[in-house]
């Protein structure tokens, strides 16, 4: 396991607190634990997980080298490199960004300086060319990432790696969390990384500033479920641990339940205000709606809007 000296640990905790304030989520960091918790998911895929504010990282390693999926925040890179080094002595060759959000691309600049080749969907690179606005707390803005953070290779539809003895398929999902969400399927290890289209800790975030769609998210989850077999393991963009097909079905059911309940109210002639007052997700909020910066009050207007179009 990784150990930090006292000074580094204090700095790390300070930065984590900053990140947590930024993203409005609550989490506890134990002083005596390494920053990343490492999970062996299946085959050649590990997952690195740290307190809630940043996305879950996929690590695909073998004799050819390492492919990373996402890289959290700028200040996490040192811990990320240490966590990967604890898994393999091979070099990190490639990084794929599942989407544009700062908690998934924040280490790009640092990793590029380590000679890592960055890939992402066309839309991710385009959105890196300007200031970024994301929907947390109604809309917060991030400065344009540095040029070195941009993907060197982009794809419009799909791209495959042939690495470490298996094929890794990366492809664009329908507009869901954003309009540039990539799914990653490690065919030999039988592991899916779905980025923030799939999260197990809260209601799904539909980023309307960056082309997201609630109905698209249902479609995207359907595609992922259709790909999964009984042994497939699934890495969520956020949420503790990894899961499987049943975990995806639970979220798909959640989405369709919300859709159907709001549709019934719309069919009865309810306005958005009346729908919010009716609290159609009241029984779901305890499990899914406890993050103050994104809960039913943020999600329901989007569902209403899309179903009313
Ligand atoms: Zn995201």
Automatic annotation (TrEMBL):
InterPro entries: Metallo-B-lactamas, NDM-1-like, RibonucZ/Hydroxyglut_hydro. Pfam families: Lactamase_B (PF00753). GO terms for molecular function: hydrolase activity. Residues 54-238 form the Metallo-beta-lactamase domain. Keywords: Hydrolase, Signal. Belongs to the metallo-beta-lactamase superfamily. Class-B beta-lactamase family. This is MBL fold metallo-hydrolase.
């Amino acid at each position: 396991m990784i150990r930090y000296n006292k000074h580094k640990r204090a700095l790390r905790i300070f930065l984590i607190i900053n990140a947590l304030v930024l993203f409005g989520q609550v989490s506890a960091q134990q002083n005596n634990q390494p920053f990343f918790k490492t999970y062996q998911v299946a085959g050649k895929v590990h997952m690195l997980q740290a307190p809630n504010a940043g996305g879950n990282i996929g690590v695909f390693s073998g004799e050819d080298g390492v492919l990373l999926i996402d890289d959290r925040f700028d200040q996490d890179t040192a811990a990320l490199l240490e966590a990967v080094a604890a898994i393999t002595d091979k070099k990190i060759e490639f990084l794929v960004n599942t989407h544009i959000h700062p908690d998934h691309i924040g280490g790009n600049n640092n990793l590029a300086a380590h000679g890592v080749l960055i890939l992402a969907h066309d839309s991710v690179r385009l959105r890196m060319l300007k200031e970024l606005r994301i929907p947390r707390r109604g809309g917060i803005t991030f400065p344009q990432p540095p040029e070195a953070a941009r993907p060197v290779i982009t794809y419009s539809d799909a791209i495959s790696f042939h690495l470490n003895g298996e094929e890794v398929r990366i492809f664009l999902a329908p507009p869901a969390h954003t309009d540039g969400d990539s799914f990653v399927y490690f065919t030999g290890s039988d592991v899916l990384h779905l980025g923030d289209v799939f999260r197990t800790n809260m209601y799904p975030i539909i980023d309307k500033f960056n082309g997201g769609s609630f109905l698209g998210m249902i479609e995207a989850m359907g595609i992922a479920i259709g790909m999964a077999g009984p042994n497939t393991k699934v890495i969520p963009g956020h949420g503790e641990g990894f899961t499987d097909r049943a975990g995806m079905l639970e979220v798909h059911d959640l989405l369709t339940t919300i859709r159907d309940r709001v549709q019934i109210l719309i069919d009865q002639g309810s306005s958005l205000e009346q729908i919010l007052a009716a609290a159609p997700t009241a029984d779901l909020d305890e499990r899914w709606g406890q993050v103050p910066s994104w809960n039913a009050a943020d999600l329901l207007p989007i569902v209403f809007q899309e179903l009313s179009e």
